[in-house]
UniProtKB/TrEMBL annotation:
InterPro entries: NTF2-like_dom_sf, SnoaL-like. Pfam families: SnoaL_4. SUPFAM superfamilies: NTF2-like. This is SnoaL-like domain-containing protein. The lineage of its organism: Bacteria, Bacillati, Actinomycetota, Actinomycetes, Kitasatosporales. It comes from Streptomyces coeruleofuscus. Residues 5-134 form the SnoaL-like domain.
Length: 151
């Protein structure tokens, strides 16, 4: 690959990483399935979760609670193009999240997750898609309620 092709491939993969979290936080969570290949995989080995294929991904991400408010911050995104049609990436994430959100400002608390993703990408025609996304979560906790019920 020439340097410009490599740069464009890296940018397309970086864009997928960011688009994934934007769709989860600000869009329709089930739509992240469209960012994967038809047989794409999302997994969390430490928890035993493995989701394969767009239909399963759509169902998995689409079942998030309707009253969940989340914001993810991505950083340290490093994409490595391994061939004209394949790339890999590692990126760090921090997740702030509450359930029971019904509007307004939620008092800031610590993040509920800090970890990293390992991704593989395949080029499908002119577009790049996620082939696999693996979650590694060394820091995690329960999702708090935004408006805990009174005792």
């Amino acid at each position: 690959m020439d340097p410009m092709e490599r740069l464009l491939a890296e940018r397309a993969c970086e864009r997928l990483i960011i688009d994934f979290v934007h769709r989860l936080d600000l869009g329709e969570p089930s739509s992240v399935a469209e960012l994967f290949t038809e047989d794409g995989v999302w997994q969390w080995p430490e928890d035993g979760r493995l989701v394969k294929g767009r239909d399963a991904l759509r169902a998995y991400f689409g079942c998030r609670p309707a009253d969940r408010l989340s914001r993810r911050m991505m950083s340290n995104i490093l994409v490595t193009v391994v061939s004209p049609d394949a790339a890999e990436a590692i990126s760090y994430f921090t997740t702030y999240r509450v359930d029971g959100y019904d509007g307004g400002v939620v008092p800031a608390g610590p993040p509920v997750q800090v970890g990293h993703y390992e991704d593989t990408f395949h080029r499908a025609g002119v577009a790049w898609l996620l082939a696999s996304r693996t979650l590694h979560l060394p820091f995690g906790g329960a999702t708090p309620r935004a408006n805990p019920p009174l005792p």
